[in-house]
Amino acid sequence: MGNILLFVNKLYAFAGIKLYLNLLCMIVISLLDGIGIFLLVPMLSLIGIFDVHIGNVLIISTLDEVLQTIPTIYQLAVILGIFILVISAQALLQKNQSLLDARIQQGFMRSLRLDIYQALLRANWIFHLQRRKSDFQHILTSELGRVNYGTTLFLRLITTITFMIIQVGIALWLSARMTMLVLLCGVLLAFISRKFIKHAKEYGNQTTELAKSYYAGINDQLNGIKDIKSNMLEQSHISWFHKLNHDIEANVVEQVKVQTNSQLLYKVSSAILIGLFIFLSVEAFRAQAAQLMVIIILFSRLWPRFTVIQSNLEQIASTLPAFKNLLDIQKECEGAAESIALHCTGGSNSFRVKGGIECRSVYFRYDRSQEFYALKNVNLFIPAYRMTAIVGKSGAGKSTLIDTLMGLLRPERGEICIDGIALTDDTVFLLRGSIGYVPQDSFLFHTSIRENLLMMNPAASEEQLWDALKLSAANEFIERFPLGLDSEIGDRGVRLSGGERQRLILARALLRKPAILVLDEPTSALDAENEKKIQEVLNKLKEEMTIIVIAHRLSTIRNADQVIVLEDGQIIQEGGFQQLSNEANGVFGRLLRHQTEIKNEAGK
Ligand SMILES: Nc1ncnc2c1ncn2[C@@H]1O[C@H](COP(=O)(O)OP(=O)(O)OP(=O)(O)O)[C@@H](O)[C@H]1O
């Protein structure tokens, strides 16, 4: 019940007055529908199908009196004319009401989609690290689809209930006793059917869980398709897929079972009720023929609405878990929201570092319930317009440190200062807007080289594009492509080699003319010749920007002005490249000697 109220509140918050307008349309449509039914009696009487005694049945007797003032030959034409007018007006109104319905529904979905997407993008990095990406994909596609369907059903439910109330009102007017009898049966049936709604909700929860597993599994497996194929893991994955699909199928069949059982109950009971109702009307209540006819028409239209309401309630119950899931994620995102101003996009020159970036006694933990610190008492100074390299064994804390320097992770203790001023939640975005980041796992879109570049700086000219490509030594391979900048690079850039991908990503980062260039393993996929080119590029770029680079391949950072060596989240060595390589017992010297030996052996 709480969830349905939440849903109604949210829908009302979005649609407001439009919902009332919709309701008003429905009331008028139902009234016109009722008038159409009332017109049937004199019409059938005039045609001669029935010789109905109109007696003192409300509305019909008034209508009959009016008709008597018209010459007999025109009576049928007049009544048919009114009938056509009433039905046409009803159809016209219905058309507009359906349109309004669609507008409310689609607008509501648009606003939900936007809210959840904005909340996702506003959430901080640590939140994203802790969640499965596939859960978000699931929410934004399948769960939103279910909520959409639930909204359609909800609006349909309001329509049905409005129609029902009006028709019950008319029926009450005609015969209170008979109407009460039917309503009593309806309430009784609704009470018996509560369990169907409960089951539908349980199966709806199951649908959410199954769909989550489906999305997560598909996502992981498609990302790891190379591993699956090269390790011959196809069969085990097909078995997993088979089992999950079996569960999905069983879940849907169970839901249909609940629906068909309740429909069966409603249909059989409706046949019994209609029989009982006609019998009682004729034998016990002695209803007049015209009155009986109107009531039978009303109830034969009314009763199926009970069935529709029951079926709608069950289906809404099965989609409510999707709505709850959506609100939960949105709430979690909002709990982790950064105070980012979304209209400010990262851009060039929004922040210039004059002196340098400083870490003052920085501590960081991914999980505050654990004792483990990924960064412990880190104190360091990164001078502007210099190249600082961060090295260390795998798991030493290099990525955590640069994520902290970029303001993606906020220190648990200590602070990050730019030119001596501590970063706050507000200024951290200025810093982030001034960074060009080249990640380890390069991210490229399945489109042309040009569009991949323009994504970073849509206003860049052809000349600026080529300048950036030259700087990153990516121009040579692109010039060889027949379509040049318009060449398509495939999904995540699969049509390029690892080195080509990395150089393209570097060009993309440079296009922003960032104040700080952060590179995570920029040369890991490059051969010696290209590595040298990148070294030269970085050397040149030092004059224009501050460079921070993580490197496993130490030859890449030969020209670094400062090297920071991390181990277990702490700085254990720092200094110039030559200085550290000369420290015989230092970790850096050992790492360097180890890499040189491997290189020499490979060269033999
Ligand atoms: N999202 C995370 N949640 C929890 N712990 C994490 C997370 N990311 C990293 N860690 C832990 O923090 C420590 C530092 O990890 P980090 O990724 O910074 O190391 P690294 O030096 O960059 O390693 P590599 O060279 O392998 O990329 C590791 O012990 C790692 O297990």
Automatic annotation (TrEMBL):
Q: Does the keyword Nucleotide-binding apply?
A: yes
Q: Which keywords has UniProt assigned to this entry?
A: ATP-binding, Membrane, Nucleotide-binding, Transmembrane, Transmembrane helix
Residue ranges of every copy of the ABC transmembrane type-1 domain listed in the record: 23-318
Membrane topology term reads:
Multi-pass membrane protein
Q: What is its main location?
A: membrane
| Parts of the chain that traverse the membrane | 12-32, 73-93, 153-174, 180-197, 264-282
Q: Does the keyword Membrane apply?
A: yes
- Where is it localised? Cell membrane
Q: Which residues form the ABC transporter domain?
A: 357-593
A GO molecular function for this record?
Answer: ATP binding
Q: What is this protein called?
A: ABC transporter ATP-binding protein
Top-level taxon of the source organism: Bacteria
